[in-house]
Amino acid sequence: MLAANRNEVPTDYDRKSELKAFDDTKEGVKGLVDAGITAIPRIFYHQPDEYSINKTSDSEEAQFRIPVIDLEGLLDPTKRKEIVAQVGEASETWGFFQIVNHGIPVNVLEEIMDGVRGFHEQDTQVKQQFYTRDHLSSPVVYNSNFDLYTAPSTNWRDTFLCYMAPNPPKIEELPQVCRDILVKYSKQVMKLGKLLFELLSEALGLKPSHLHDIDCSEGLLVLGHYYPACPQPELTIGTSKHSDNNFLSVLLQDNIGGLQVLHQNKWIDVPPVPGALVINHGNLLQLISNDRFKSVEHRVLANHRGPRVSVASFFSTGMRPMAKLYGPIKELLSEDNPPKYRETTVWDFNAYYKEKGLDGKSALSHFKL
Predict the structure, then answer these.
(1) A single Gene Ontology molecular function, please (predicted)?
(2) Do 157 and 358 touch, CB atoms closer than 8 A?
(3) pLDDT one-digit tens code per residue, 264-283
(4) Which of the chain's ends, N or C, has fewer CB atoms near its CB within 10 Å?
(5) How far is CA 310 from CA 112, 144, 158, 250, 364, in A?
(6) pTM of the predicted protein model
(7) What's the domain count of the chain?
C-alpha cells in the first residue's frame, strides 16, 4: 500500500516547476507546516528503502547497539589505552559511536539547541535574508535541501549552515538569535575535535598529532537542522540515506530520535542519550585511512512528532578553495595494503559530492583507483 501511494503520481506531474515554486517561497518545509498542510507535496515522496528496519531478539540486541564510549579518565595512561582501543574498534566496525563525559557542559548543549530552534522559528522575513543556494556567497546559508534540484526526492528538512573555521564570520554577520552561542559552541567543538583526532590517530597506530598535523581539524562547518512534524511521515524521509563528505562529524540530537545507521544491511536506531554526542566518520577519513575506518550510510526518519532539532558539526574546509591534497596515509600503506584511492583536494571532493546530491550512493567510488 505504501509503495502504491508513492507511485500514484500523475503522468503530467511537473516536478521541476513544483521544486521551483517551493524554493521561491524561501520558507522551507516549516512554511508548508505553518500553512496548515495535511498532505505532503509530491516532491517529498520517497521510494521505500531496500533495507529492513532492525528487529532483534533480546539475545541479539547487544550486537546491534551503537557503542557508547566514556571519555572520562583520559589523563590516566591505562584508561587512555582502553578508550583508544574502543574508538578503534567502533571506527572499524560501525563508523559511528556516541561519547559521554566529552567536556562540553550541558548548558552549552542546551543553549545551542535553543539557538538553532530560535533561528528556524524566528520571523520568516528575518530568516529569508539568509536564504540562498550559493554556499560561497554568504557567511551564513539557509535553505531547504542543498541538493533540491538534483536529488531524486526532497527531504523533510530545513537547514542553516556557517563556516566557523578556519576563517569565522564577523560576529555581526551571524544570525542575531544565535550568534553568541554559535561562537561559544564552535570553540568547544574545535577543542573536542582536536582530542578526537588524537584518539583516532592513536587508534591507527600513528603519533597522536598526526591527523591534526595534516589539517583534518582545520575547518569547521556548523549545520542547524530543523525537521518539522510531518502529516505523512510514512511517505517521506527527514534526511535520505547518505554518508558524510568530511573527515569527522559531531552531532548533537534532541530526544525525538529518528537517526538510523546502516549496519550489516539493517537500519539500526541511534537512540538519544542525554548529554551525549554522536560521532561518525566522513568519506575523507575513510579515504585517508585506506578503508580502515568506515564512513557508513545513515538517514533520519520523518516523524509525526516535531520539530526535531539537531546540530551537526563537520570537520572539513568544504567548498573553501584549499589546495592541499589528501590520499591514503603513507604510514598505513604496505605491499599487502596498497592505496585504494587517488589523491584529491577537499574542494574537489565536495564539489563532486554536492553535484551528485544525496542519491544513496557513496562519493568514494568516484575516487577509487
Answers:
(1) metal ion binding
(2) no
(3) 999 999 999 999 999 999 99
(4) N
(5) 9, 15, 11, 11, 26
(6) 0.93
(7) 1
